[in-house]
Amino acid sequence: MRYLILSDIHANITAFETVLEAAEGRWDKAVCLGDLVGYGPDPNEVIDRVRELPAVTIRGNHDKAVTGLANPEEFNPLAQNAVLWTREQLRPENFDYLVNLPKGPVPAGAFSIIHGALHDEDEYVFAPEQALTGLLDAPTPVVFFGHTHIQGGFTLRGEEMAILHSKPATDKRSSVLTVEPDVVYLLNPGSIGQPRDGDPRAAFAIADLENQRVEFWRLPYDIQSVQQRMAQAGLPEPLILRLTFGR
Ligand code: ZN
Description:
Layout: E1 3-6, H1 13-23, E2 29-32, H2 43-52, E3 55-57, H3 61-66, H4 77-89, H5 92-99, E4 106-108, E5 111-113, H6 128-136, E6 142-144, E7 152-157, E8 160-164, E9 174-178, E10 183-188, E11 202-208, E12 213-219, H7 223-233, H8 237-245
Parallel strand pairs: 1-2, 2-3, 5-6, 6-10
Antiparallel strand pairs: 1-11, 4-5, 7-8, 7-10, 9-12, 11-12
Helix pairs in contact: 7-8
The structure holds zinc ion.
Zinc ion (ZN) binds at residues 8, 10, 35, 60, 62, 147, 149.
């Protein structure tokens, strides 16, 4: 079974459609690691599209803030502005869909999905020391996480932990990770709608664990059209600019 691994789409339908088009025919089921909305200009379009997919979807911190499950005041002012704007846009059935999304970890095939850290969905896993508990307590040898918007991950082999750099080179669309036995993997497909690892291309992954294979993908998309819609919506300028730089 080949799984399409989606995360942090953040209401960016242009990036999301670009990903779905390129991935067509390459996957059987999908998972979505949360943060469908927040930051971007297309919350309803993205939720509609996710709902059409044969996907297992969990919630992210922005999904919680938009629906009032978390307090948006805990966000920085820019993110908070986007949360409140998104709340006004959501159609009632999409609000209901978001508010009822399950919390990770959730199993999917041979792996599990979480939004942030294994034991705390809102916690960021940037560094090896933040990944350790998740690796030691991992419910499956492969766990996919999101939240940081940084493609890559961490491995634990015996007592040895390592950082995984899996971002494809700027002139390549994808890179392949061969999954080894007796290694635990915490893998981040990267963010579709708001990458923050210095590469503005939309990020996602495709996992085929029966064949010990995970592909990490990056795709250029029409960033300017998204920025125009954000400007029309009156979303904060720094959120518009950061898409250009992938930061
Ligand atoms: Zn996010």
